[in-house]
């Protein structure tokens, strides 16, 4: 049985979906104002691994990944580029989709854009106001009153008094002065001249949504008021996800999510990744060094998703070497693939390798152990045809594309190929 670490309870728990045979997953997607850096892809690769395993175990999966295409960053950067918000965010969204394809990440069933779900956000905010969880300020903005939600901070195990306002840098300085309490967070931002043409006329007034309300509105629209798994990086555990819980459960009175899962930060040469450090590398950066994107996926699988992972160019090159060796092994065993009758001893060995892999993944997605089983199996004395079959069997979960002979990027639509070329020429 699959067992997962639940950030909410701090325990490894047996996984049981709300509805038998169906798993509903939400993962916090990117803010499309720039190229997505490698740190973000750790959570997306992990989500893909979990999804693949659930599907392999015959679950039907419905996955939603939001696209944040309106916030302070997207507005500011689109204005710099003298483009409409949609023109600006469309470009980065298409590049992101291309990157997902290059990493062999399955696209979610639903990738809702915030700008296309303003109505749902407004209705959710109105419900929170009616129930006393939110209030309107003099400038027309709306805030969530944290003091009204006693269980706030359970996910992050924090005391409300210790909260730091504006932790995500999503609020302008002037936003701070309108709140009743310093730690209350914004649900609706009243329009300001600096927003330019980005606003919506709604029952709440002229303005735009805050960042946190976007995820609650879109996840509940497509997955229901309660769903199975919510995934994100550990940076979202401290504030964004507690805010999601508070506003969602405040509005519905129901448990929002059963299992919360968070990937640990990716370090770059021992440091936190960031633009100020000059180490916010992208998929394009690794391709320019002649490294195949699936090698990054392989590197991420060598560490457990809850363990720190230190990215260096040397470690990525080593992952590329291992990935190429793995493909060579696959080619060799396929060439020698001659179906023969198995002895009882070798049949038992094949089944043991199959079960060892399943046991590894069942253990809170222990990918380092799963990879070790793969390499051990390839070095064993079982017949080549069984090595090949088992490798493909494992790869249904690992997603390394071991059975593919055509690069995913070569199969991309012409529009995405055009965007990739434009990125490369823009430097």
Describe the structure.
The protein is of the alpha/beta class and 427 residues long. It folds into two domains: 3-263, HUPs (Rossmann fold); 268-409, Isoleucyl-tRNA Synthetase, Domain 1. It has helices spanning 38-56, 72-80, 85-102, 118-130, 211-223, 240-252, 283-288, 293-301, 313-335, 344-362, 367-378, 384-398, 414-426, and strands at 3-6, 11-14, 22-27, 60-65, 134-136, 142-144, 185-190, 200-202, 205-209, 227-233, 257-263, 266-268, 271-272, 309-311. Strands 5-6-7-9-8 form a five-stranded antiparallel beta sheet. α10 (344-362) runs antiparallel to α11 and α10 (344-362) runs parallel beside α12 (384-398). The radius of gyration is 23 Å and the shape is globular. Residues 166-174 and 405-412 have low confidence and may be disordered.
| DSSP summary: helix tally | 13
What name does CATH use for the topology of the largest domain?
Answer: Rossmann fold
- For CATH, the homologous superfamily of the largest domain is named as HUPs
Unreliable residue runs: 166-174, 405-412
- Give the overall average pLDDT: 90
Strand content: 5-15%
Principal-axes shape call: globular
* CATH class annotation of the largest domain: Alpha Beta
């Amino acid at each position: 049985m699959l067992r997962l670490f639940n950030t909410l309870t701090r325990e490894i728990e047996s996984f049981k979906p709300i509805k038998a045979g169906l798993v509903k997953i939400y993962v916090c997607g990117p803010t499309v104002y720039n190229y997505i850096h490698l740190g973000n892809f750790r959570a997306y690769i992990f989500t893909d691994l979990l999804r693949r395993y659930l599907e392999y175990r015959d679950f039907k999966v419905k996955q939603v990944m939001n696209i944040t295409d309106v916030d302070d960053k997207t507005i500011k950067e689109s204005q710099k580029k003298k483009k409409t918000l949609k023109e600006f965010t469309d470009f980065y969204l298409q590049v992101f989709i291309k990157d997902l394809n290059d990493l062999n990440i399955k696209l979610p069933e639903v990738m809702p854009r915030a700008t296309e779900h303003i109505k749902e956000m407004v209705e959710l905010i109105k419900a929170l106001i009616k129930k006393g969880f939110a209030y309107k300020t003099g400038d027309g903005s709306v805030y969530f009153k944290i003091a009204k939600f006693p269980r706030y901070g359970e996910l992050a195990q924090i005391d409300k008094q210790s909260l730091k306002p504006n932790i995500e840098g999503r609020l302008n300085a002037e936003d701070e002065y309108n709140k009743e309490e310093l730690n209350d967070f914004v649900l609706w931002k009243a329009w300001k001249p600096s927003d330019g043409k980005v606003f919506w006329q709604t029952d709440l007034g002229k303005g735009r949504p805050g960042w946190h309300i976007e995820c609650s509105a879109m996840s509940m629209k497509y997955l229901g008021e309660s769903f199975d798994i919510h995934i994100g990086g550990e940076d979202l555990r401290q504030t964004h996800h507690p805010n999601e819980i508070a506003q969602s459960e405040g509005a519905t009175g129901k448990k929002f999510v059963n299992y919360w899962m968070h990937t640990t930060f990716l370090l770059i040469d021992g440091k936190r990744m960031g633009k100020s450090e000059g180490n916010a590398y992208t998929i394009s950066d690794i391709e320019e060094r002649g490294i195949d994107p699936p090698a990054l996926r392989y590197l991420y699988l060598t560490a457990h998703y809850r363990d720190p992972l230190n990215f260096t160019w040397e470690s990525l090159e080593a992952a590329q070497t291992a990935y190429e060796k793995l493909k060579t092994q696959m080619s060799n065993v396929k060439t020698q693939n001659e179906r023969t009758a198995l002895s009882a001893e070798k049949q038992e060995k094949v089944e043991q390798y199959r079960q060892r892999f399943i046991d590894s993944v069942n253990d809170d997605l222990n990918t380092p152990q799963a990879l070790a089983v793969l390499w051990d199996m390839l070095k064993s004395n079982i017949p080549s045809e069984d090595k090949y079959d088992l490798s493909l069997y494992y790869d249904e979960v690992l997603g390394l594309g071991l059975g593919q002979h055509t690069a995913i990027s070569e199969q991309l639509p012409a529009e995405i190929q055009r965007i990739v070329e434009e990125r490369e020429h823009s430097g």
